[in-house]
């Protein structure tokens, strides 16, 4: 490639520092990089980005870049540029060969800088604090939405936001891996899965705890212990050089031995940063290999329709000699 047209918001932010990246693009050439945004952000772009900014809206944006790109091969982000966006580039840059690329900047983002690690550590510490405050409020008679409200309002008051729609899945709803908080009233004997994170300075945290209200039935406690065993084994295996696919197998093999292989309906985990889900992907088909400086979740789960589910998730920093668990909320023993 001679140049790269960056349209994915998290990539734009990562390369430019501009905090309204949905309204920005970055063009990287051999001479340097330029941030493109519009006049709503003239001051903000100057304050936030070390890149020279060109303030315009398309098609003036494309016209500005066109002369320097004539005859070149320019990569674009196939996963984020819309069909209409590509048609616009083709019309504006007839002398340019546009080449679809995937994951170029995402791969660079997988290993975090010390500043990024600091931000995510802070986001996770806040999430731990909030979870600790809210845990005693998770009891019979309150709704899942009550729990989510308590979490979200505390995050906002602390100057953060919720990293994603908070998952609070109680009783049989625990079988929904992405069961966003509903009006269901939590009952005595329920397991309640709470999956939450803080977004602070643009960076995310991500953690899940499944907690008991009263004493759940024997089958759910058996499932809980199996997930806990799988989670702890996968956490213990995290270190540089480990293949993501092998890590996924550590947890999956344990759950399979407990008859819960089919019930583990998603990947083991994922990288976390400017996005909640980013590289590396910890799944069976992944070719990623762990490196020091990556931040990953380990989150095996088991979901049984009609009965319920369990997920336990920690956020880990891969270090030179192994890992550090950043999520500190206690994991309950059942
Ligand atoms: C909507 S963000 C969800 C955050 C959560 N901690 C999470 O990442 N989950 C919940 C269950 C599965 C897992 C997930 O969505 N994994 C993705 C990467 C997958 O495709 O497996």
From TrEMBL:
<dbReference type="InterPro" id="IPR050659">
    <property type="entry name" value="Peptidase_M24B"/>
</dbReference>
<keyword id="KW-0479">Metal-binding</keyword>
<dbReference type="Pfam" id="PF00557">
    <property type="entry name" value="Peptidase_M24"/>
</dbReference>
<dbReference type="InterPro" id="IPR001714">
    <property type="entry name" value="Pept_M24_MAP"/>
</dbReference>
<dbReference type="InterPro" id="IPR000994">
    <property type="entry name" value="Pept_M24"/>
</dbReference>
<dbReference type="InterPro" id="IPR001131">
    <property type="entry name" value="Peptidase_M24B_aminopep-P_CS"/>
</dbReference>
<keyword id="KW-0378">Hydrolase</keyword>
<dbReference type="Pfam" id="PF01321">
    <property type="entry name" value="Creatinase_N"/>
</dbReference>
<feature type="domain" description="Peptidase M24">
    <location>
        <begin position="119"/>
        <end position="320"/>
    </location>
</feature>
<dbReference type="GO" id="GO:0008235">
    <property type="term" value="F:metalloexopeptidase activity"/>
</dbReference>
<protein>
    <submittedName>
        <fullName>Proline dipeptidase</fullName>
    </submittedName>
</protein>
<dbReference type="InterPro" id="IPR036005">
    <property type="entry name" value="Creatinase/aminopeptidase-like"/>
</dbReference>
<dbReference type="InterPro" id="IPR000587">
    <property type="entry name" value="Creatinase_N"/>
</dbReference>
<dbReference type="GO" id="GO:0004177">
    <property type="term" value="F:aminopeptidase activity"/>
</dbReference>
<dbReference type="GO" id="GO:0046872">
    <property type="term" value="F:metal ion binding"/>
</dbReference>
<dbReference type="InterPro" id="IPR029149">
    <property type="entry name" value="Creatin/AminoP/Spt16_N"/>
</dbReference>
<feature type="domain" description="Creatinase N-terminal">
    <location>
        <begin position="2"/>
        <end position="111"/>
    </location>
</feature>
């Amino acid at each position: 490639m001679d140049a790269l047209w960056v349209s994915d918001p998290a990539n734009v932010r990562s390369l430019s520092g501009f905090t309204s990246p949905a309204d920005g693009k970055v063009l990287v050439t051999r001479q340097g990089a330029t941030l493109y945004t519009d006049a709503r952000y003239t001051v903000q772009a100057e304050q936030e980005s070390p890149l020279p900014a060109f303030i315009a809206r398309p098609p003036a944006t494309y016209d500005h870049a066109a002369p320097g790109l004539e005859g070149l091969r320019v990569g674009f982000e196939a996963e984020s540029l819309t069909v209409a966006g590509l048609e616009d580039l083709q019309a504006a840059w007839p002398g340019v060969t546009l080449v679809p690329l995937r994951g170029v900047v995402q791969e660079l983002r997988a290993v975090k800088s010390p500043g990024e690690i600091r931000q995510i550590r802070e986001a996770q510490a806040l999430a731990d604090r909030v979870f600790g405050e809210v845990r005693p409020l998770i009891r019979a008679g309150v709704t899942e939405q009550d729990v989510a409200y308590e979490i979200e309002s505390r995050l906002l008051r602390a100057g953060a936001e919720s990293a994603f729609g908070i998952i609070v899945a109680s009783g049989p709803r625990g079988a929904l891996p992405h069961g966003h908080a509903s009006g269901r009233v939590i009952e005595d004997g329920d397991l309640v899965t709470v999956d939450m994170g803080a977004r602070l300075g643009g960076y995310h945290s991500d953690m899940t705890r499944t907690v008991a209200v009263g004493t759940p039935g024997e089958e759910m406690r058996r499932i809980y212990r199996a997930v806990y065993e799988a989670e702890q084994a996968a956490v213990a295996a995290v270190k540089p050089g480990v293949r993501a696919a092998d890590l996924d197998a550590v947890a999956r093999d344990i759950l399979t031995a407990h008859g819960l292989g089919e019930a583990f309906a998603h990947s083991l985990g994922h990288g976390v940063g400017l996005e909640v889900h980013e590289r590396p992907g910890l799944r069976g088909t992944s070719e990623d290999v762990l490196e020091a400086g990556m931040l990953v979740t380990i989150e095996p789960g088991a979901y049984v329709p009609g009965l319920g589910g369990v997920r336990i998730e920690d956020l880990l920093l891969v270090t030179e000699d192994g890992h550090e668990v950043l999520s500190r909320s206690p994991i309950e023993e059942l």
